[in-house]
Amino acid sequence: MAIAAALMLAGCGGGAQIDTGNGKAVALTKEQTRKTLPDGGAMTGWKASTRPASVKMNKLYRSAACPIKGNAGCENSRFYGTSAFRRDDSAAIATFLIVAYDSEQSAREGYDVLWNYYGKRTGQRARTFSLGPIGEKRDARIGHSGFHGEPGTITQVRVGTTLLWTMTTSTDKDKNAVTEEARDLTLVLAKRARQAQNGDTPSATL
Fold this sequence. Notes:
Elements: H1 2-10, H2 30-36, E1 46-56, H3 59-65, E2 77-87, E3 92-101, H4 104-118, E4 127-128, E5 137-144, E6 151-159, E7 162-170, H5 175-197
Antiparallel strand pairs: 1-2, 2-3, 3-7, 4-5, 5-6, 6-7
Helix pairs in contact: 2-5
């Protein structure tokens, strides 16, 4: 679903409270949502397969971002964005997703609903792994993503008014290396979301 959503969009034009000066995380604009997504400059050693893009939430994109009965989890969401990359050695693919909400409360309410869906994307035998202190809430799982047992990961993080996902597939059988790479990618996305909500231009890189 994530790759399909990325292609569809391409065809269209630590835990602490974010300091925005008023003690509240801000809702992102469409442009801020796009800039939050890592671009080629942020992804050293990777090649873009889908450039960062964001769209205003409507029925179509709610179905892509929240493919649950009634599009649960997308209530009060404003924008949806994605970008995707392939590592230079072709050993891994990374997909980033963001849903930007109108408030922290809306993002908080959508978190568990959506993790109940996204957390199953790595299969029944997937196991959890630690991301460390990234965002206000975070989850991560590693399982199998290919026909030959290749590992795949998915992480979900809440940063202020946004929910963020990083999905990877890899030919590397070293699961410790795969989870470490997933942490690094997740941290970059989370830092960029925090920078955007602080009113700064996202600049975090790998």
